[in-house]
Amino acid sequence: MGNAKYILLSDAGEWFPHPPAYSTLRRYVDRGLNGVRLQVVRSAGRVLTTPEWIEQFVLISSRRDMASGYNQDQECQSSRIGSARRLQRAGIHVMKTTSNEQKRGTSTAPGA
Fold it and tell me: Most Cβ neighbours (<10 Å): which of 11, 29, 32, 92?
């Protein structure tokens, strides 16, 4: 298998900028992200990749994200708003916090 430094797919998450779950790594291998699949080799029943392949995957899939105009922040905000609306319809009050409070782990909630 050459001189490449192979790592188990189960350990590959720590090589990503934001470590994904193992199921996400499997999805990157099986279905890909933005038309790009994470390269792996299978040996003795193990699924292996390399830090170089991970770096290539992140770089190429990110470029395709930017080229398509995809904005993850907008999608996350839209998802949060939708979740808050569903909770409010269910009678659950949602406290709003500022991004600085979230970073500090503080809140303006009564009794907090």
Answer: 29
